[in-house]
Protein backbone atom coordinates (compact mmCIF):
# COMPACT_ATOMS: atom_id res chain seq x y z
CA UNK A 1 0.00 0.00 0.00
CA UNK A 2 1.38 3.41 -0.87
CA UNK A 3 1.97 5.85 1.98
CA UNK A 4 -0.20 8.91 2.08
CA UNK A 5 1.50 12.30 2.08
CA UNK A 6 0.42 14.67 4.81
CA UNK A 7 -0.68 17.95 3.34
CA UNK A 8 0.62 21.11 5.06
CA UNK A 9 -2.86 22.65 4.93
CA UNK A 10 -4.29 19.72 6.87
CA UNK A 11 -1.64 20.11 9.59
CA UNK A 12 -2.32 23.85 9.90
CA UNK A 13 -6.07 23.20 10.07
CA UNK A 14 -5.60 20.60 12.83
CA UNK A 15 -3.42 23.01 14.83
CA UNK A 16 -6.03 25.76 14.47
CA UNK A 17 -8.76 23.41 15.74
CA UNK A 18 -6.65 22.46 18.78
CA UNK A 19 -5.81 26.14 19.50
CA UNK A 20 -9.49 27.12 19.23
CA UNK A 21 -10.54 24.40 21.67
CA UNK A 22 -7.81 25.48 24.09
CA UNK A 23 -8.86 29.14 23.89
CA UNK A 24 -12.50 28.20 24.46
CA UNK A 25 -11.62 26.15 27.56
CA UNK A 26 -9.50 29.01 28.95
CA UNK A 27 -12.28 31.56 28.33
CA UNK A 28 -14.78 29.38 30.19
CA UNK A 29 -12.41 29.13 33.16
CA UNK A 30 -11.84 32.90 33.25
CA UNK A 31 -15.60 33.54 33.22
CA UNK A 32 -15.97 31.53 36.41
CA UNK A 33 -13.22 33.42 38.25
CA UNK A 34 -14.56 35.94 40.78
CA UNK A 35 -14.34 39.65 40.00
CA UNK A 36 -11.40 41.44 41.57
CA UNK A 37 -13.20 44.81 41.67
CA UNK A 38 -16.95 45.23 41.88
CA UNK A 39 -19.62 47.74 42.92
CA UNK A 40 -18.10 50.68 41.08
CA UNK A 41 -19.72 54.11 41.55
CA UNK A 42 -18.51 57.25 39.79
CA UNK A 43 -19.91 60.58 40.92
CA UNK A 44 -23.27 61.21 42.54
CA UNK A 45 -26.27 59.05 41.67
CA UNK A 46 -27.55 61.30 38.87
CA UNK A 47 -24.40 62.33 37.03
CA UNK A 48 -20.75 61.52 36.54
CA UNK A 49 -20.03 65.04 35.21
CA UNK A 50 -18.30 67.87 37.03
CA UNK A 51 -16.59 71.21 36.42
CA UNK A 52 -13.19 71.71 38.08
CA UNK A 53 -13.21 74.71 40.40
CA UNK A 54 -17.01 75.23 40.38
CA UNK A 55 -19.04 75.88 43.54
CA UNK A 56 -21.33 72.87 43.17
CA UNK A 57 -19.38 70.00 41.65
CA UNK A 58 -15.68 70.80 41.91
CA UNK A 59 -14.59 67.16 42.16
CA UNK A 60 -15.87 63.67 41.43
CA UNK A 61 -16.12 60.85 43.96
CA UNK A 62 -14.87 57.41 42.93
CA UNK A 63 -16.01 54.44 44.99
CA UNK A 64 -15.29 50.76 44.41
CA UNK A 65 -14.91 47.51 46.33
CA UNK A 66 -12.11 44.98 46.03
CA UNK A 67 -12.74 41.27 46.60
CA UNK A 68 -9.10 40.43 47.37
CA UNK A 69 -6.42 42.25 49.35
CA UNK A 70 -3.88 43.93 47.07
CA UNK A 71 -1.24 46.59 46.86
CA UNK A 72 -2.60 48.90 44.18
CA UNK A 73 -2.13 52.12 42.28
CA UNK A 74 -5.24 54.06 41.18
CA UNK A 75 -4.90 56.37 38.17
CA UNK A 76 -7.02 58.64 35.99
CA UNK A 77 -6.39 58.09 32.29
CA UNK A 78 -7.50 59.58 28.99
CA UNK A 79 -9.34 57.42 26.44
CA UNK A 80 -6.06 56.62 24.69
CA UNK A 81 -4.60 55.29 27.93
CA UNK A 82 -2.35 58.28 28.66
CA UNK A 83 -1.84 58.85 32.39
CA UNK A 84 -3.36 62.08 33.72
CA UNK A 85 -3.21 61.72 37.50
CA UNK A 86 -2.22 59.17 40.12
CA UNK A 87 -4.77 59.24 42.93
CA UNK A 88 -3.21 56.53 45.09
CA UNK A 89 0.18 54.90 44.71
CA UNK A 90 1.18 51.57 46.24
CA UNK A 91 -1.81 51.70 48.60
CA UNK A 92 -3.07 48.62 50.45
CA UNK A 93 -6.65 47.80 49.45
CA UNK A 94 -8.24 45.44 51.97
CA UNK A 95 -10.54 42.72 50.63
CA UNK A 96 -14.29 43.26 50.74
CA UNK A 97 -13.79 46.92 51.65
CA UNK A 98 -15.02 50.02 49.88
CA UNK A 99 -12.39 52.49 48.75
CA UNK A 100 -13.30 56.13 48.14
CA UNK A 101 -11.11 58.56 46.21
CA UNK A 102 -11.73 62.06 44.83
CA UNK A 103 -10.44 63.71 41.66
CA UNK A 104 -10.49 67.50 41.22
CA UNK A 105 -9.97 67.50 37.44
CA UNK A 106 -6.28 68.34 37.58
CA UNK A 107 -3.20 66.51 36.39
CA UNK A 108 -0.25 65.49 38.57
CA UNK A 109 1.37 68.82 37.60
CA UNK A 110 -1.70 70.76 38.86
CA UNK A 111 -3.04 71.82 35.45
CA UNK A 112 -6.79 71.69 34.90
CA UNK A 113 -7.57 69.09 32.25
CA UNK A 114 -9.57 69.85 29.09
CA UNK A 115 -13.22 68.76 28.87
CA UNK A 116 -13.75 65.16 27.86
CA UNK A 117 -14.25 61.65 29.13
CA UNK A 118 -11.74 60.08 31.48
CA UNK A 119 -11.44 56.57 32.92
CA UNK A 120 -10.14 55.02 36.14
CA UNK A 121 -7.36 52.43 35.95
CA UNK A 122 -6.39 50.23 38.88
CA UNK A 123 -3.01 48.49 38.82
CA UNK A 124 -3.15 45.49 41.16
CA UNK A 125 0.50 44.91 41.94
CA UNK A 126 -0.01 41.74 44.01
CA UNK A 127 -2.04 40.14 41.20
CA UNK A 128 0.13 41.63 38.45
CA UNK A 129 -2.99 42.88 36.65
CA UNK A 130 -4.27 46.15 35.24
CA UNK A 131 -8.01 46.84 35.31
CA UNK A 132 -9.89 49.73 33.74
CA UNK A 133 -13.09 50.30 35.69
CA UNK A 134 -16.42 50.47 33.86
CA UNK A 135 -17.94 53.90 33.36
CA UNK A 136 -16.42 57.24 32.53
CA UNK A 137 -15.84 60.57 34.24
CA UNK A 138 -17.12 63.51 32.23
CA UNK A 139 -15.14 66.67 32.72
CA UNK A 140 -17.18 69.66 31.52
CA UNK A 141 -16.53 73.30 30.94
CA UNK A 142 -19.81 74.42 32.55
CA UNK A 143 -22.79 72.72 34.17
CA UNK A 144 -26.30 73.77 33.22
CA UNK A 145 -28.74 74.57 35.98
CA UNK A 146 -28.12 75.26 39.61
CA UNK A 147 -26.63 73.27 42.44
How would you characterize this protein structure?
- The model has no long low-confidence stretch (mean pLDDT 87).
- The protein has one domain (37-139): Immunoglobulin-like.
- It has 147 residues and is an alpha+beta fold.
- Helices cover 17% and strands 39% of the residues.
- It has one helix at residues 8-32; strands at residues 37-42, 49-50, 60-66, 70-77, 83-93, 97-103, 116-124, 129-132, 137-139.
- Strands 2, 4, 5, 7, 8 and 9 form a 6-stranded mixed beta sheet that branches. A 3-stranded antiparallel beta sheet has the order 1-3-6, with no helix packed on it.
Helix-strand blueprint:
Blueprint lengths: L7 H25 L4 E6 L6 E2 L9 E7 L3 E8 L5 E11 L3 E7 L12 E9 L4 E4 L4 E3 L8
Parallel strand pairs: 2-9
Antiparallel strand pairs: 1-3, 3-6, 4-5, 4-7, 7-8, 7-9
Give short descriptive properties of this protein.
Immunoglobulin-like; alpha+beta; six-stranded mixed sheet; 147 residues
Tell me, rounded to a whole number, the average pLDDT: 87
| SSE order, one letter for each helix or strand | HEEEEEEEEE
Tell me the number of structural domains: 1
The major β-sheet equals: 6 strands, mixed
Q: Count of DSSP helices?
A: 1
Low-pLDDT residue spans? none
Second CATH tier, the architecture:
Sandwich
Estimated helix fraction: 10-25%
- Enter the CATH topology name: Immunoglobulin-like
Shape: elongated
Secondary structure: number of strands: 9
Cα gyration radius (Å) = 23 Å
What is the CATH class name? Mainly Beta
Amino acid sequence: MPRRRIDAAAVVFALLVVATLGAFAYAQRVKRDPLLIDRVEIGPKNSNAFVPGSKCYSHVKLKFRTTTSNQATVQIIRPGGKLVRTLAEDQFLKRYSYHVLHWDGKSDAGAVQPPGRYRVRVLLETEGRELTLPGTIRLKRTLRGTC
